[in-house]
Specification:
alpha/beta; 11-stranded mixed sheet; 10-stranded mixed sheet
Amino acid sequence: MSDTQTFLDTLNARSQQRDAEPTWIAARRQAGAARFEAIGFPTRRDEEWKYTDVRSIAQGNFALAESAEFSQAQAAALTLPLDAYRLTFVDGVFSSALSDLDALPDSVQVLPLSKALTDNHEAVGGPLGRLTSVDFSAFAALNTAFMEEGAVVRIAPGTVVEKPILLQFLSRAGTPVMSHPRILVEAGGRSEATLIEHYAGETDATNFTNVVAELMLDRGAILNHYKLQEAPLGDMHVASIHVEQSRDTRYSSYNLNLGGALVRNDLISDLNGQGAETNFLGLFFGQGRQHVDNHTKVNHNAPLTFSNENYKGILDDRAHGVFNGKVYVKRDSQKIEGFQSNQNLLLSDRAHIDAKPELEIYADDVKCSHGTTTGQLDEEAIYALRTRGIDEATARGLLTLAFAGEVLDQVALDAVAERVELAVAGKLPERFNLAGLVEAAVSLND
């Protein structure tokens, strides 16, 4: 039996369990299944996947979860301590008991995809799949074929959402399962919001999450988008995020990857109107034999658009990281600015990074730059800290955190920043703080 056939058999079994559904949904499922069957899983012979081997997913035997049973105590141990509007999924199944949408403004809709399709499927049908089609990748096609749950967020024009909107995806240990969440966000003109995707789970979980997110920003909208991925080290995680930006919009992505055995992120932003601005900030931390692959692309499709990207990788043990970032400037998209930086820190001689920053420019009045560096901790700086009474493990943790500081300083949510700091540097003595650390590290290297 082929790798694809196993997934197709599961899909066929699920289809027989479903009630009748609108014609357009069935047609899109069929298109996703047909595309997936035609192309199959990518291999390392495919340029976009040359550094990432997905056989652990393709050859996996994943079921579909039927329930969202998870206690409040289990969830509390994993969730972010935030005052937020919360939508929770357990192995891809919506949990109303673990969600909290109390006091959600009338001008904001946050609801599971299943309910959105039941209540008003016509309103979802137009935007769903418009940015990420089944042709984008085998995983996008697979997501569309299995598409039945996820989140829909709609923000009315002029609305400022005071609290973050948290989409929480929890993974249970036990029989390996797969989930294919679909996220749709429509931010009205001049609205402003913070969206958080959080992936976490029980330590021994070995599940597969395949998420597709489509984010659409109308004129003047501002969206701060946090993706904190701290899945168990046995989980596999594939994500495709596609952003459409109209005139004068501002989108800021904070892509923070800490967990997962195999992780692939595709992040694409289309700057389609003058004054649109996108900021990609990323930090990926790998240990053991983790594999983390980040592919990003910024499409400057209009003049007077702006992008800035700063990704940092920290790899220990035998971890493998991939960064492939591309800035594309369309013909006649004059007076744009596009900057890209990727820096990597290897904490082990066996850790490995493949970095490939790219520029593709078809206009002549632009400001663009890109670059990548890879190095190790400065032994002289470690020695200098140890002469001040700091043990070696703490010294290494401090300097590693200093390296991550340029990204973490931009994280406005303390609960998120603290999770990242703990993963990257361990629990440090309370007398150290990140702000003073960066200054101290610089002075030690002078």
